[in-house]
Design brief:
109 residues; mainly alpha; Non-ribosomal Peptide Synthetase Peptidyl Carrier Protein, Chain A; 5 helices; 66% helix; 0% strand; disordered N terminus
């Protein structure tokens, strides 16, 4: 298992992974989703890296079972970006939170 370094995992990387997944919808739909997340669910883009669970819940409400497709893409892109293999039973939010915890523990040392 590859460990996560601070240079390869930060808030910007989380947003890039999410944007890359949302790109599968197309540019206009991606922008509409971000707008809807802010207006309807009060999930601002700037706060997403610290509230991935809220983002996940909002996207599940928007897309229903279709969110599973996006979540698969999010986990795939996160794996590519961090070179870390995740348990398929983990949600995207759980993957991000476990990486943050691992990084926090590493930084405490």
């Amino acid at each position: 298992m590859t460990s996560v370094s601070p240079q390869r995992f930060d808030d910007q990387l989380i947003l890039e992974v999410i944007d890359k997944g949302l790109n599968s919808l197309g540019e206009s739909p991606k922008q509409a989703v971000w707008y809807y997340l802010e207006e309807k669910f009060k999930v601002s883009r700037a706060e997403v890296p610290n509230n991935v669970t809220e983002l996940e819940e909002a996207l599940q409400k928007i897309f229903g079972l279709g969110y599973n497709f996006l979540e698969t893409l999010f986990r795939q892109y996160l794996k590519e970006a961090t070179e870390r293999d995740f348990n398929n039973s983990q949600s995207f939010a759980e993957c991000v939170n476990s990486l943050k915890l691992e990084l926090d523990l590493k930084l405490e040392r």
